[in-house]
Design a protein that fits this description.
The structure holds 2 protein chains of 2 kinds. Chain A is of the alpha/beta class. Chain A is built from 13 helices and 7 strands. The longest helix of chain A is centred in the middle third of the chain and has 20 residues. The termini of chain B are far apart. Chain B has 13 helices and no strands. Helix content of chain B is about 75%, strand content about 0%. Classes of the chains: A alpha/beta, B mainly alpha. At the A-B interface, helix 4, helix 6, helix 7 and strand 2 of A face helix 4, helix 5, helix 8, helix 9 and helix 10 of B.
Chain lengths: ~300, ~325
């Protein structure tokens, strides 16, 4: 319950941190209750406004928000309790009444109409625009559409070899591969880094696969075979300790081959001497494939 | 092909929906109901049929192809029944007085035409964003992977969609029973389109369309006497959708970037339609919305947002009427 309350307290900050659309809803409710709209409102508008007001208060107050999150199950985060508030409908309804009153007596093609009606209308539209994020995206798609097309071309080339594919590759390729084709198998999926996907199954990745992911991640940045990963251990007293574990690229690639990977894409920024070391030590063939280096075991 | 699929996904639900409304509201000839009600009710029925076929396949361990056959079979039977009901209703209507749609009235004036044109422009911008915009919000989502795995293996959730390997420990039943990936797989099998095209383009277009229908019904309920205010309402909704495009959690964000997710369909279609149904006291439609949500989103730990909203709005409406009645009485006595 404490975690829920904390989430509800911080959730409001996060929800309104990047946009002010909720502020528009609050302004609409103020207009309804104190701007004379409530007295003249039809029953349908009044009922919706009353419900919206109650639910908005419930979503803002952390205690009631925590109960709503409990009701909607902890599977969903704070912002989804706002689904219970007809925010879009209520804000649009109040805006429609406001604009309706302004435009009641004026034609849109007269000069008088232009000054007395268009200006408040434009002001309202501007206010609505300022309530958004002003074009600044506060989210990033994991892979852009352009990257997805590029990765698709790489995967198409792999498919042309006509063999069953069990792939290990940099994260962006692993993120796209199963969506591109259901015939490509992966050593690990997006649930390795997307914790929300982890709740879709009871599967747990073993230590080897987790090391493979860690090595690939650091290889994408460093271009080297040697790397490190952080290991967290818990001692008898329950205290957590962090230590570094050395990752050997050769060993990781051998592990991947043993797990069944027959196509391995290495990051394109791998240093040439590192690739020579690989070719000398393992029975593999290397060739460039798009922005990656394809490693295949010699049959 | 995508547009043709979308057209079928509108016309078939319209047939099913009109037939269902004729049965659910027998006293009122079906011509008195809105086309938008027909499409949305039909959509709920399609989801319900997909949910039933999917649940049967999962619980009985049937293949994906069996699921497709069941779904098509039930759809065919319901479509035939709906056509028969509509024919019967037409005969009945000939003897009953013609009821006018409550949206009828004087001819459209210049202001209303301008509002309609503005709404058209905003709608086209939204549609372009969905079809051509390209960026999808995929965090926590594996719909395309699931559909791909169904089509390749002809099994439902026997392999892990994210890796292509057989499940060792399995997945929770509460998530296995949600039918949207199977419904999208059915559409892929029927249309021959790739899962990416169906899930990331066709379905979001349909969600956007149904969302606009739901808000259109709500507009008619909130402002029945004024087409102008209905026009302002719809334009503001369209503006919020465009503005919310970059704001995670806003309605517009969901519709523009992840209109295939159950939680977005609930927020953008089911909930506005539930609000409109409660305000019109169409309780049977509310039940259909609750059932559709259970097929798409409900995880069996909560009771669903549609039920909560319906009960909450009905209770709030009851209190509002009492308060209005009391304040009306006080004014009269003063």
């Amino acid at each position: 319950m404490r975690a829920l309350l904390e989430s509800a307290w911080l959730g409001w900050e996060r929800y309104t941190g990047n946009h002010k659309l909720t502020a528009l809803l609050l302004a609409a409710l103020l207009f309804f209750w104190f701007g004379g709209m409530g007295r003249r409102a039809r029953d349908a508008v009044g009922k919706m406004a009353f419900y919206t007001s109650l639910m908005t208060a419930a979503c803002v107050c952390p205690i009631s928000a925590a109960f709503l999150m409990l009701y909607q199950t902890r599977f969903y985060s704070y912002e989804w309790i706002w689904s219970l508030v007809p925010a879009t409908a209520m804000t649009a309804a109040c805006g429609a009444v406001f604009l309706g009153r302004i435009w009641e007596n004026y034609s849109c093609f007269s000069v008088k109409g232009l000054l007395r009606a268009c200006l408040p209308t434009l002001a309202l539209v501007l206010l609505v625009f300022l309530g958004g994020s002003l074009g600044q995206e506060n989210w990033g798609g994991e892979v852009t559409e352009r990257d997805r097309e590029r990765i698709g071309e790489t995967l198409r080339e792999l498919e042309q070899e006509g063999q069953e594919i069990c792939l290990w590759a940099p994260r962006e390729v692993m993120a796209c591969a199963r969506a591109y084709s259901g015939e490509i198998r992966l050593l690990y999926g997006r649930d390795m880094w997307d914790s929300a996907l982890g709740s879709y199954s009871y599967e747990v990745y073993d230590g080897t696969r987790q090391e493979l992911y860690q090595w690939m991640t650091q290889a994408e940045e460093s271009g080297r075979l040697e790397g490190t990963m952080e290991v967290l251990t818990v001692d008898e007293t329950g205290e957590q300790h962090s230590s570094e574990k050395r990752l050997d690229g050769m060993a990781c690639i051998q592990d991947a081959l043993e797990l069944g990977a027959n196509y391995i894409l290495l990051p394109g920024n791998m240093e040439a001497e590192e690739l020579e070391k690989l070719q000398a030590s393992l029975a593999v063939e290397l060739r460039e494939l798009g922005e990656y280096v394809l490693l295949r075991p010699l049959s | 092909m995508i547009f043709f699929l979308c057209l079928c996904m509108v016309l078939l639900p319209l047939l099913l929906g009109r037939g269902a409304l004729c049965l659910l509201y027998r006293k009122r000839p079906v011509r008195g109901t809105l086309l938008s009600d027909g499409v949305l009710t039909g959509y709920l029925i399609v989801v319900g049929l997909a949910g039933a076929a999917h649940m049967g396949a999962v619980l009985l361990g049937q293949s994906f192809s069996d699921n497709v056959r069941w779904f098509l079979g039930m759809l065919g039977v319901c479509a035939a029944a709906a056509a028969a009901v509509l024919l019967w209703d037409r005969r009945r209507e000939r003897s009953a007085p013609r009821q006018q749609d409550f949206r009828g009235g004087p001819p459209i004036n210049a202001k209303e035409r301008a509002l309609f044109f503005a709404f058209l422009v905003l709608s086209l911008l939204q549609l372009m964003r969905i079809v051509l915009g390209g960026e999808r919000y995929l965090e926590g989502d594996m719909t395309v992977e699931a559909v791909n795995s169904f089509l390749i293996t002809d099994d439902i959730y026997k392999i892990n969609p994210l890796t292509g390997e057989w499940y060792q420990a399995g997945m929770p039943l509460r998530l296995k029973l949600l039918c949207l990936p199977t419904l999208y797989g059915d559409l892929c099998r029927l249309s021959g389109l790739e899962p990416e095209q169906v899930v990331w383009v066709a379905v979001p277009m349909l969600t956007w369309f149904c969302s606009n229908l739901a808000y259109w019904i709500l507009a008619g309920q909130l402002f029945p006497e004024s087409r102008e205010r209905q026009g302002f309402f719809m334009n503001l909704v369209a503006l919020f959708y465009l503005l919310g495009d970059t704001v995670y959690g806003a309605d517009g964000f969901g519709v523009m970037h992840s209109g295939f997710r159950g939680i977005v369909i609930r927020a953008a279609v089911l909930l506005p339609y539930t609000v409109g149904a409660v305000l019109r006291r169409r309780w049977k439609l509310v039940v259909l919305c609750i059932a559709a949500e259970a097929c798409m989103v409900w995880t069996f730990y909560g009771l669903g947002a549609c039920l909560f909203t319906a009960v909450g709005l009905a209770a709030a409406g009851f209190v509002w009427e009492r308060l209005r009645g009391r304040s009306g009485g006080k004014e009269a006595s003063a």
